[in-house]
């Protein structure tokens, strides 16, 4: 799942996946704005077959926080 997430982030940011670290901030390090974040969330929902409520968006600040959030969502969905 982590590599799939890096691939999505790479496609969204245009950065190589190898340069996207776990501690990278979506806004400060990867340069995503609020619309980019919404687009990323929609892609994650589609790829991982989960639902991410709008009120959870603020939890998705770093690559690590997204990965941990996704692990919880996928575990709950199983």
UniProtKB/TrEMBL annotation:
- Determine if Lipid metabolism is one of this entry's keywords: yes
Record localization: Cytoplasm
Q: Which Pfam families does the UniProt record give?
A: PP-binding (PF00550)
UniProt PTM comment: 4'-phosphopantetheine is transferred from CoA to a specific serine of apo-ACP by AcpS. This modification is essential for activity because fatty acids are bound in thioester linkage to the sulfhydryl of the prosthetic group.
Please name the InterPro entries in this protein's record: ACP, ACP-like_sf, PP-bd_ACP
Superkingdom, taxonomy of origin: Bacteria
Q: Which UniProt keywords apply?
A: Cytoplasm, Fatty acid biosynthesis, Fatty acid metabolism, Lipid biosynthesis, Lipid metabolism, Phosphopantetheine, Phosphoprotein
In this UniProt entry, the residues modified to O-(pantetheine 4'-phosphoryl)serine are: 34
Q: Spell out the Gene3D superfamilies in the cross-references.
A: ACP-like (1.10.1200.10)
Q: Which GO terms describe its cellular component?
A: cytosol; membrane
The cross-references to HAMAP family, in alphabetical order and at most eight, read: Acyl_carrier (MF_01217)
Alphabetized PANTHER family for the sequence: ACYL CARRIER PROTEIN, CARRIER DOMAIN-CONTAINING PROTEIN
Q: Which family does it belong to?
A: Belongs to the acyl carrier protein (ACP) family.
Function, as annotated: Carrier of the growing fatty acid chain in fatty acid biosynthesis.
**Name of the featured protein:** Acyl carrier protein
Protein species of origin: Dyadobacter psychrotolerans
């Amino acid at each position: 799942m982590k590599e799939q997430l890096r691939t999505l982030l790479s496609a969204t940011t245009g950065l190589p996946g190898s340069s996207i670290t776990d501690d990278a901030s979506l806004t400060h390090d990867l340069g995503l704005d609020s619309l980019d974040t919404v687009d990323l969330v929609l892609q994650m929902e589609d790829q991982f077959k989960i639902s991410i409520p709008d009120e959870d968006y603020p939890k998705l600040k770093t690559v690590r926080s997204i990965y941990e959030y996704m692990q919880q969502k996928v575990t709950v969905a199983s």
